[in-house]
Amino acid sequence: MSDDVFDPWSPEFVAAPYPAYARLREESPVLWYSKSRQYVISRHEDVNALLRDRRLGRSYLHVTTHEEMGRSAPPEYQEPFWTLNNNGMLDREPPDHTRLRRLVSQAFTPRRVEALRPVVQRLADELVDAFVAEGGGDLISQVAEPLPVTVIAELLGIPEPDRHNLRPWSAAICGMYELNPSRETAEAAVRASEEFAGYLRGLARRRKADPRDDLVSALAAVEGLSEDELIGTCVLLLNAGHEATVNVTGNGWRALLQHPEQLAKIRENPDLMGTAIEELMRFDTPLQLFERWVLEDIEVAGVPIPRGSEVALLFGSANHDPAAFADPEHLDVTRRDNPHISFGAGIHYCLGAPLARIELTASFGSLLAKAPGLHLDHEPSYKPGFVIRGLQTLEVSV
Fold first, then answer.
1. Vertex 301: Cα angle to 299 and 321 (nearest 5)
2. Which residues of the chain have pLDDT under 50?
3. 146-156 and 166-174 helices cross at what angle (nearest 10)?
4. For residues 176 and 81, what is the distance between their CA atoms, to the nearest angstrom?
5. Strands (E), 158-239
6. Do 187 and 181 form a contact (C-beta atoms < 8 A)?
7. CATH number belonging to the domain at 3-397, selected among 3.40.630.30, 3.30.460.80, 2.60.60.20, 1.10.630.10
8. Cβ(88)–Cβ(236) under 8 Å?
9. Tens digits of per-residue pLDDT, 145-200?
10. How far, CA to CA in Å, does 201 sit from each of 27, 97, 225, 235?
């Protein structure tokens, strides 16, 4: 199969990747994609297994060097981004990842997350009330974006006057997770990394001297967690904690408004909200691709993949695999058997998944209750990014 079938820089592909995924799963479940120098993996069984396979890693620097892996070190000007990125747990591997996740879990506890539930509901209701009072507008910028950013800011303890910086910093940093980012994208990520890290360093030191009831204070009090790791953790919580939630909200409402019979089912039976949220995450996955480095020679679907390779795991394709889901191209808010991998799997399973579910339940529930006549003004378009895939805007009326 030509690797033109997989075209992540094409707006047409980004808008509708699922037919191409079906071809990949059927004809070339392991595709060598020369443009990004990756093996693209598209079947659910393989993606799920590789996420749990310890012969792969988010990094390889814990076992070898760039040179031994046949790779070049990142350009020197990108150092602030990579320092920040590598101090979060996402790109750490055991034993470092185990230590860091355990330490962060001491502060980011289930009790702390559950205590946010009434706060999240209040914020969601306030945003939706304002949205309805205006007769609608852009659901992304007016509801989907401010809710998770505000929740994370509340959780971390970011003072309100500083919160306007969070979304631009996050968007710039996340640009580096796209395939083959441009020099301009990298430079923007570096600037955001320097500014965000500098801000958090100052905040962490103030909270260490004068603790408050917030996560930065709690992390600052954790023995064995370095200041750089604290900063990397906070940035990861912001980026991972809101980018996916924003896109599930936008992609999910688009899907529901295009499938009014499914929207009607939730309206008639609010108890379906739990299965509906899981189905919306599966149906139009916010994180389409996740990467792993191959630390030992492996074989996938009969294709040998040598040590030093990088694999691109297609979450969006895995979540539409008929081998794992009955009638996967059909949106079904009552779906019970739903082994989607939108939160990942294995040791890197999303730490913030419970908080994301609380946020999504609150915002979808509030919109369902307060905007019963919600409808699309026009068909929305997707942002150019493929890895983190979401809508530019979602203009609706109530």
1. 135
2. none
3. 100
4. 9
5. none
6. no
7. 1.10.630.10
8. yes
9. 999 999 999 999 999 999 999 999 999 999 999 999 999 999 999 999 999 999 99
10. 50, 22, 13, 11
